[in-house]
Amino acid sequence: MITDRPVVLRMHDVTRIHGAGSTAVTAVDHVDLDVRAGELVAVMGRSGSGKSTLLNLAGGLDQPSRGAVVVEGQDLSTCRPARLAELRRRHVGYVFQHGNLLPTLTASENVSLPLELDGVSVREARAAAVSILSEVLHPDVVDRYPDELSGGEQQRVAVARGLIGSRRLLLADEPTGALDEVTAEAVMRLLRDRCNDGAAALVVTHDAAQAAWADRVVRLRDGRIDSITGDRPASQSTTTQANDTLTAELQR
Ligand SMILES: Nc1ncnc2c1ncn2[C@@H]1O[C@H](COP(=O)(O)OP(=O)(O)OP(=O)(O)O)[C@@H](O)[C@H]1O
């Protein structure tokens, strides 16, 4: 049962008001949400409903005006900046719409960097980078620099960088935005596999096909949770056959 698993992310009565006075905007409004190990939660809602703000709060990139965000048992509001930075580096993987790859590093160096910063040996980190990249990118391009890659390839590198290692909370803001259908499926499969291995993921998407990979779908409206649907068991994944087909298509 998924409810037996540890809570990786707890958002308790979280409100985030941007700005002040007459221009104040309540982007997230009294949200309660737990995401457990093994669980992939999709966040949907119209533009401006608060999805990105929610994700930024979950990863400690933004602070709530009220309420508490707890990651791996640690209330982020009680962390000193150095501890918060360490917690984010060790436990949280981010995938943003615009990957922000470092231009002076190759694709595989960009992906291995988080592990190297965490003290993993360069050799081990590079091997892990090549391994995760092989799931979403043709091996011929892993040694190219970002400006030698297409937009979709850069996006895939950014996904691999966000998901490398054993970080337990994965936060993805439209991770498949610039990708074709087959590659988008591969990225969702990667996220799904990470969750099946024990990570917890919060993924913003506009795409119902991608939300179908989630255990639960949270719909936001005006910063509030409008509905939560689905309770697919976390262990359920796509069939082996579907995985094989996707891998074959990507390697073409
Ligand atoms: N830094 C900010 N200052 C002021 N208002 C902001 C700020 N960031 C977001 N907002 C407002 O908060 C609300 C929620 O924004 P948010 O970006 O979280 O929505 P979203 O659901 O992610 O939208 P989209 O799907 O368009 O990316 C919007 O009304 C937005 O204009």
Automatic annotation (TrEMBL):
Residues 234-252 have a biased composition (Polar residues). SUPFAM superfamilies: P-loop containing nucleoside triphosphate hydrolases (SSF52540). Residues 228-252 are annotated as: Disordered. It comes from the Bacteria. Residues 9-247 form the ABC transporter domain. Pfam families: ABC_tran. GO terms for molecular function: ATP binding; ATP hydrolysis activity; transmembrane transporter activity. One of its GO terms (cellular component) is membrane protein complex. CDD domains: ABC_MJ0796_LolCDE_FtsE. InterPro entries: AAA+_ATPase, ABC_transporter-like_ATP-bd, ABC_transporter-like_CS, ABC_transpr_LolD-like, MacB-like_ATP-bd, P-loop_NTPase. Keywords: ATP-binding, Nucleotide-binding, Transport. This is ABC transporter ATP-binding protein. It comes from Euzebya pacifica. The lineage of its organism: Bacteria, Bacillati, Actinomycetota, Nitriliruptoria, Euzebyales.
